[in-house]
Amino acid sequence: MNTTTPDLALPMSSAPAAPQRQRWRKFLRHPLGVIGSLIVLAVCGSALCADWLAPHEPNKQRLIARFKPPVWASGGSTTYLLGTDNVGRDIFSRILHGSRISLLVGIAAVGVSLGIGVTLGLLSGFLGGRVDTTIMAGVDIMLAFPQLILAFAMVAVLGPGLGNIILVLGLTGWERYARVVRAEVLALREREFVQASRALGVPTARIILRHIMPNTFSSVIVMATLQTAQAILAEASLSFLGLGTGLSYPSWGQMIALGRDYVNVAWWLSTFPGLAILLTVLAINLLGDRARDLFDPRMT
Amino acid sequence: MIAVIVRRLLRLVVVCLGISLITFLLLHLSGDPVAMILPEATEADRAVLRETLGLNRPFLAQYGAFLGRALQGDFGQSFFHRTPALPLVFERMPTTILLTVFAMVLAIGLAIPAGILTAVKRYSIIDHLVTLLVLLGQSMPVFWTGIMLMLLFAVAWNLLPASGWDTWASTVLPAITLGTFQAPLFLRISRSAMLEVLGLDYVRTARAKGLHEWVVIIKHALKNAAIPIVTVIGLQFGVLLGGAVVTETVFAIPGTGRLIIRAIGQLDFPVVQAGVMTLSLIIVLTNFLVDLLYLWLNPQVRIS
Fold first, then answer.
1. Is A5 part of any domain?
2. Closest CB from B267, B279, B287 relative to A149
3. What is the end-to-end Cα distance of chain B in Å, rounded?
4. Which residues cross the membrane (chain B) (predicted)?
5. How high is the ipTM of this complex?
């Protein structure tokens, strides 16, 4: 009979570093995650410093310089690195400025979804009963509704514009948070530390905010990162369809839509803003995947 | 089993009611729909419109009337086309469905074999390469993929038409565009589902029996991996229809999506409502069928 106890020293000795630092080391070991974060930093930098980085005013028209090709193509010049559009605006400068819209919409929309979803999920899971049934019915309906189509319809009524786009994308993306947070709360609710606080007479609101909410953070962070990428894509789609943030400020989706109209004349009009979206979304996805590996091993 | 189906049916009814409520509320979201439909009209004209649209009545009565008419397929006259709204949507539906089905077939045909291959050859060069492609594919906006394909195949090489939906050749680029939009997710799911199953005991037993590796993979493993794959594919139908709306706009395809987008631009609310509600109901019904299929495929759920 095998009666020896398992060797307890083994796992202990292999984990001397603090979990936080270990996480960092693990993060740095994976090249894709690092590349992703570098690109995200670059995009944030371009959004913050677009005014200084851009060689031209993003909306400045110069009809004499219409349809200039990018610098390496024949007829291109270093004045317009990525060429110009149908009214002679500099594509490169517009891409730099467009990052502002993408990031702003991405982050703000996720903020709205996060606020609604986490609140409803906490309430639903902790209070249970009729509150739970009602909220979950709402989640079911929202999940059944195709996000993009609902967003189209809402923009139709509210009208385009930055605030409305954020609102619409925020209002159509909260159900996943509600679901996951609710499931986590249900699991946590029966745990001893929550039972103990309840027995001690800690008010419900305090139990939710201080004891339960922090425990849902890791999965929420992962979802939020991935949703940011989704929201940037959704904003681009809306802008492409002319339902976006308006024409007064350049946005990537709207630049691609313009390129669609001149697809026979100037390939660079839609190619470069599209690459900007691709890189940004890819980088955020890479970061989100890494975050999932590190924070939430259950989800992989 | 029957109890489960009845519960799902009840949920279906609730979801359908929810969809109709949201569709109904759409018009009211703006505050005053009349001011939006007739921005420059006199107060008298607006009062007439308010009366004909029934906007003077209590909220619930309005919703009831909307629901009653919607059940009979009556969403009112299109402001722009001056004909009933629902037939306009239905006329264009076959095009949209056809595009979606083409894309679906293409995505499944590409993604499932590739998913199986990468699961079997895990950590090989092919696996890494495909993973990279999946990452790229998931980050590409669908309309941009469409324009890039158009630039290459229509403008640069002149092989396929750039837009329209009148010949078989013109369906190729839209189908590829929408297909590559979905393929990455399908691939990810089939890869992870296969990986999970390949590690199970019964697969090892099948191998130990001396069965040929591909018999084990196709006959034994794939059968069980199919459950999550089918579910995800079914549930993605809604996303695919959303993508179809965008793809139709890129390639100027006369489908429901383009109709809705145009109607949004023209503030043609009957058409928007009819279109949004039809698409949503199609998606909800598909999801319901997927649920049933899931029950049939997975005996565990049936028993519990």
1. no
2. B279
3. 8
4. 9-29, 97-120, 132-156, 168-187, 229-254, 274-297
5. 0.82
- Interchain proximity B151–A267, CB inside 8 Å: yes
Q: Count the residues in chain A.
A: 300
What fold characterizes domain B85-303? MetI-like fold (1.10.3720)
DSSP secondary structure, B35-88, as one string: HHHSTT--HHHHHHHHHHHTTTS-HHHHHHHHHHHHHTT---B-TTT-SBHHHH
CATH of residue A255's domain is 1.10.3720.10
Q: Which of A153, A270, A285 sits opposite B135 (nearest CB)?
A: A285
Residue B47, phi-psi category: left (phi > 0), alpha (psi -120 to 50), beta (remainder): alpha
Closest chain A C-alpha to B243 CA, distance in angstroms: 8
Q: Tell me the two tokens of residue A25.
A: 């080391």
For B263, nearest residue in chain A (alpha carbons): A156
How far does the CA of residue A195 sit from the closest CA of chain B (Å)?
29
Interface probe, candidates B139, B236, B291, chain A, greatest A C-beta count within 10 A? B139
Number of domains in chain A: 1
Q: For residues B230 and B240, what is the distance between their CA atoms, to the nearest angstrom?
A: 15
Q: Which domain holds residue A225?
A: 20-295
Kindly report, residue by residue over A225-247, the tens digit of the pLDDT: 889 999 999 999 989 988 888 77
- Cβ contact B144–A155 (<8 Å): no
Please tell me which residue of chain A has the smallest CA distance to B154. Answer: A264
Task: Read off the pTM.
Answer: 0.84
Whole-number Å distance between alpha carbons of B248 and B256: 8
**B122-167 tens-digit pLDDT:** 888 888 888 888 888 889 999 999 999 999 998 888 888 887 788 8
Report CA-CA distances (Å) from B234 to A228, B115, B118, B126. Answer: 25, 17, 22, 27
Determine phi and psi for A288, rounding to 5 degrees.
Answer: -65, -40
Whether A12 is covered by a domain: the verdict is no
* Residue ranges covered by each domain of chain B: 2-70, 85-303
Any domain includes A191: yes
Q: Select the residue from A35, A148, A289 to test the B interface by mutation, using most B Cβ atoms within 10 A.
A: A148
- On the 0-12 / 13-18 / 19+ scale of CB atoms within 10 A, A129 is exposed
- What are B233-248's pLDDT values in tens digits? 887 887 888 888 889 9
Query: Which tokens sit at A66?
Result: 């219409």
How far off is chain B from A261, nearest CA to CA, in Å? Answer: 10
